[in-house]
From TrEMBL:
It comes from the Eukaryota. Residues 250-285 are annotated as: Disordered. GO terms for cellular component: cytoplasm. This is Phosphoglycerate mutase-like protein 1 isoform X2. It comes from Punica granatum. Coiled coil: none annotated. The lineage of its organism: Eukaryota, Viridiplantae, Streptophyta, Embryophyta, Tracheophyta. Belongs to the phosphoglycerate mutase family. InterPro entries: His_Pase_superF_clade-1, His_PPase_superfam, PGM_Phosphatase. One of its GO terms (molecular function) is phosphatase activity.
Amino acid sequence: MEPRAQVCTPYTVAKPFTWHAQGIHNVEGEKNYKVYMSPEYFDAHLTPLGWEQVDNLRKHVRTSGLLKKIDLVISSPLLRTLQTAVGVFGGDGYSDNKMDALPLMVANAGNSGRSAISSLNSPPIMAVELCREHLGVHPCDKRRSISDYQFLFPAVDFSAIESDEDVLWKADVRETKEELVARGLNFFNWLWTRKEKEIAIVTHSGFLFHTLSSLGNDCNPSVKKEICQHFANCELRSMVIVDKSMLGSDPPTTNYPGKIPSGLDLPSSAADKKAENENSHSGLK
């Protein structure tokens, strides 16, 4: 496994980062980037392969002992990230009786075909808007109402989200990379106010790439290259953000490379770049 990336900022926090499992938009978007503009993929859910990836990572976080160390799980409030978060870090099968707590996910949430997932023996899971994917234009990156999510994921904490409806996503305005990075840095600033030390974050490829690239600007080029590599679906990377005087932490034992065989499904954040390239080849601007 690769050595743990150490981001050179004057803070000390340990964070396992995970890109959500494969979504239906990833598969179709790789064939045709225009799919990301289709309302059919609004708040895209996981594919059957995506759920296999979830099951594989779920097994890993248990056999590695990582699950016992996690104090909190933070998820972007979109269907694919919530499904990934509760699937990986949730409890065992849910029993619908008075002795059980509320389920983290009800049966067949988001056309998953999956049984309900218990919140027993699971770290708390919280949804946070700041770690969403690129905002705007692509319907797959628009969330549904929090009321809908609360029905599908009863034991997930949505209290940090102020608006029931999605007021951040705009149909005709795409968030710039600079705006995404600023939002990502705000997310990290918020993380550093948390009392929890081991926080698992389930988020999106574009958000991870641009935010971590910005955080890596002060690092050695070899370190920046490592942390800026695109994640594979359901890949888990354990990163420590440390004070420069504290470099030299022990290597991780919990990294997980994502699906096997390795390979990237095109994230929606890559669609704009692909469109630019294709338009340039065809003489369009």
